[in-house]
């Protein structure tokens, strides 16, 4: 049986289990419906390239949400996520090929605080390049 975060003694530098997610065009359509963000850069190849993008891109908030999933999956209880923020630094280009774009998430404990919380530093990469900057979550232990 694996140890939960509450049972573990966290230390700065401890790593979360990595998470790899394939973002597909199908997911973009579903996310657009759920978020009501129907910007054509997220579904129309011609429009996306006309405005200077390399192709259809994932919603930044979808990418950020997946980073949150890294943390909440590790916590086992999404209610223990106290705060989460990130900057969008580079787009995730989602090809229309059925397999989508592979986004890889890692995280590590950046700070353990006296108030029973910890800061988790998240890294999100697509094609080996960072797509979220200053991605950090505060969690209740």
UniProtKB/TrEMBL annotation:
CDD domains: SAV4209_like
Domain spans labelled MaoC-like: 19-120
Organism: Saccharomonospora xinjiangensis XJ-54
Name of the protein described by the UniProt record: Acyl dehydratase
Similarity comment: family membership: Belongs to the enoyl-CoA hydratase/isomerase family.
Superkingdom field: Bacteria
InterPro entries membership: HotDog_dom_sf, MaoC-like_dom
